[in-house]
Amino acid sequence: MNKWKGKSKGTILGYKIFVWCIRNIGIRSSYAVLYFVASYYFLFEKKSNRYISYYFKKRLNYSAWKAKKSVFKSYFTFGKVLIDKTAISTGLRDQYTYEFDGIENLRNLLAEKKGGILISAHIGNFEIAEHFFADIDFDCQINMVTTDQEITVIKEYLESVSVKESNIKFIYVKDDMSHIFDINEALSKNELICFTGDRYFEGSKFLEGDLLGKIAKFPAGPFMIASRLGVPVVYVYVMKESNLHYHLYARVAQNVKKRDAAGLLHSYTQNLESMIKKYPFQWFNYFDFWDDLP
Hints:
The protein is 46% helix and 18% strand. The chain is of the alpha/beta class.
């Protein structure tokens, strides 16, 4: 089986090509290049094709033909999201529009002066959220908690071509659990802690929850930490719409009891499922998520 190993796919060459295209032929023209990239993945990435095809066929109940077309569209959409992320980082934020659905939930959260926890997923384009927050007078430090061992050279390259330094700080999960102290310190300063709740890697603690009609494994950390700290929890997604427009969602976790990690996970999966069904091509987990394939 193919499980997520804690590192996302990507090469520095790919990002350099995106930057060259954006600077020389523009954002929309860069999208055209993706027909070749998506075609390559569609034709040759047999494993990821199989896993994402399962998602469309078995979890969304698409026909075989519709699922096949959807696999290509998924790769194509993922490429658009990466181009947008790169373009916005390199100073082209003003070419994009957005709408914010639920900003009052985040403002109310910060007004409580206890900090707060945001839980997102590998869906849409959450990493560009800070660029839109700046436009709505949302002045707050966001700390991203991650186990994703992103290739450092890619991160450094994107920082080198960015017009301004990112305001997001990273808190890396450590075996000695020292990241808990970093999280508590940030919350004491009324800062936001952001987790992605939809990927665990083998060897780490997990919880099981139902997503799209089948049980899957989720990382225990985000839900155990969020349910124990007694701070507000908000689900946040940044979803790509047509053209160069983004829709930012913020929804408060409802009816979740303290120290009820399973209850929080259930609330999260219900919320995430509604977002997946609305944006099926923006679910970017190209591995055996439900552990259902040999």
